[in-house]
């Protein structure tokens, strides 16, 4: 039986094409870009997959000359930074239900700070860029890539010369190619730990890939910046583990790490995004390749990738901690 995760992964070319060509989406992006253009400072908050999207989003906004500070939603709420009246807060939440993301929005509203949400369709909040319907699989995929496309559209609207309309138009086909030929056939389920590593923005994609493997396949996985991996984190790895380098960027250090891994008896693989998309946009189909790897490993391990948070980890009272009071 086809899982919801697989359906959502395979829906991405069509969904991303819809967002890129929808008049409603373009209007939402235009309004949000006007707000960001006026902002003295931009703060982007999120949790988990949403935080990874926020980190790539900040890099895309930087291409338009707009610096943004990225913070986990809980830290933003419980250790609130000094925010000025002319700042703008961008809240990323795939479900529009995450407690601390909603608390961040409530805190901003309480202090009359401009707030933009990037969230699911039909969430019902004003000043929102809507992405896709709420996903039925808890291993979030299409909402992640849709959020990256929304940030790319914002960057283009704000004048990023490295994010052109032609570049945006090529994203759905690059994602379709990634689904058709993900380039992951040589990566078996390791006996112990799966380690993803990349450079620059690919380090964020590595962290997202590790999260998908943990969620979907219930497999111990970690994601690293390639240099940080070398600073002690590779020390305990052995023949039970596997390193997967990801790119672009295709730095010399990635190849050197794979060679060192082989010499140390640690299996190593490499996942490339071969499209000619600019480096930041290339993270979108690259992430899809790692989503498919998580799906394949879930199937190999006999795990349900659609229902991730179960047992004591699904305690409703725990998940409500930090939510704004009605």
Describe it for me?
The chain is α/β, with parallel strands linked by helices and 326 residues long. The protein has two domains: 4-169, Glucose-6-phosphate isomerase like protein, domain 1 (Rossmann fold, 3-Layer(aba) Sandwich), CATH 3.40.50; 183-301, Rossmann fold, CATH 3.40.50. 50% of the residues lie in helices and 14% in strands. It is built from 14 helices and nine strands. It has helices at residues 4-10, 12-21, 23-38, 49-63, 73-78, 99-110, 142-157, 165-169, 171-180, 201-217, 226-233, 252-263, 279-301, 316-320; strands at residues 42-46, 68-72, 88-93, 114-119, 128-130, 194-198, 221-225, 242-247, 267-272. A five-stranded parallel sheet has the order 2-1-3-4-5, sandwiched between helices. Strand 6 (194-198), helix 10 and strand 7 form a beta-alpha-beta unit. Helix 2 (12-21) runs parallel beside helix 7 and helix 7 (142-157) runs antiparallel to helix 13. The longest helix has 23 residues, at 279-301. The radius of gyration is 19 Å and the shape is globular. The N and C termini lie far apart (41 Å). The model has no long low-confidence stretch (mean pLDDT 96).
> Any idea how many domains?
2
H-E order: HHHEHEHEHEEHHHEHEHEHEHH
Mind describing the biggest β-sheet?
Answer: 5 strands, parallel
Strand order of the largest sheet: 2-1-3-4-5
User: CATH H level of the largest domain: which superfamily?
Assistant: Glucose-6-phosphate isomerase like protein, domain 1
Strand content: 5-15%
Number of helices: 14
Structural class determined from secondary elements: alpha/beta
CATH architecture of the largest domain: 3-Layer(aba) Sandwich
**Termini gap:** 41 Å
What is the name of the CATH class of the largest domain?
Answer: Alpha Beta
Number of strands: 9
Give the CATH topology of the largest domain: Rossmann fold
Low-confidence stretches: none
Radius of gyration: 19 Å
Residue share in helix: 40-55%
Would you tell me the overall average pLDDT?
Answer: 96
What overall form do the CA principal axes indicate?
globular
